Here is the input.
Amino acid sequence: MTGLRAPGFDARAVRDRALRGTAAVFPDTADYGRTLYGAGLPVPGDALDAARLVPPVFMPRRLEKLIELGREPLHTDVDLTATVGGFRAALPVYLSAFGSTQVASADLGLAVSRQAAGLGLPMVIGENVVPVNGYGRLDPDAGSSLVGRIRAYADHAVDGFGGVVVQQSTEDADAEVWNLVYSDPSALPLLESGRLAFELKVGQGAKPGLGGMTVLSAEAAALLGGQFALDPVFGDDPVLRCASPGTFTDEILRQQIRFMRNNFPRARVWVKLHPGRDVADAAGVAWAAGADAVTVDGAEGGTGWAPVPFLDHVGLPLAECLRRIGRPAGDLLATGRIWEGTRALKCLALGASAVGLGRAALLAADADPGLGLVRLVEALALELRLLISALGKYSVPDVGPEDVWTPTAPERQEHLV
Here is the structure.
């Protein structure tokens, strides 16, 4: 039977499943902890990739700027300061959620925190950090702990800019993470300066409809058995640790946001949505309930562990999320394969208030823990200024859908060929 063939069929994948069973549903565990997983590759026919920025011939706002300055305006005159989820930011960028995975912990977690703070950019600390890495009250400088990351950010924060956003999942709620942070002295400077937020995680782009997943050694998994579901899909060692995705209806979401606003009145309220088909309805519910920001994580987003079918076939692309939401009723934050100016500006033109750096930020900090993220953001900022100036505009809110051309489906296919 070794010579059996199946033309037009993925025989290699079938054989892999026949040999490895349930382990074949996930990426190879050999590089877990050193690899950024997630749907990082372009989505076929991605409307954001196919779209083009289109400067007009006539630029009345350039004339207005010329009169204001008394000279011809340049790209250096573009103002990139923005409001991101209630925080003042040096540019329309924030750091997406980094959770408890090995790649986001230890020295790398501290490096990202320090650089984001110095850049004046808000930073989200992702789910499950406390249940997995600890809160850090006894060792607040530990980079893998929640307090370690908060203190690293607070110690390097620029006055008046940025903020820390603490995400909470179902397991985090059991650990009362928000209560711990809200009353902790380490977070007090951020709280008193209006630079602390809590983010309710409804879902994420890498695995819509599923909770967090991490691969742990059998020894480590045994310590977490009471907090997480454990599934031996790879055999006895390692073990797949699964978090609950949580259960949401429109009324549950409204009540969750009201709870956050009532119990933590001095903190901003963020809500993170996965790229579901009803993403526009969910965003509308969140804004109406009083959320300061809604984060939409496109199918391109996510750095965490996820089943291969979810990475390749589940969830709406970021462009489609933006199209369905249309004109946002509140602060809309978009993330999913953002690392340079063109894709970022297309998102901003299509309704986003800011864009999130996820795996790009981790890669940059890994390349240079001291200045890698700073240099990446400086390059992105230069591109944004050049592009916005070319559109004849000089601030982020001035950019709009008229600045983007998106081909229709037949045109898009021809464009890709």
Q: What stands out?
A: Confidence is low (pLDDT under 50) at residues 410-417. Residues 372-390 form the longest helix (19 residues). The first strand starts at residue 52 and ends at 53. DSSP finds 18 helices and 15 strands in the chain.
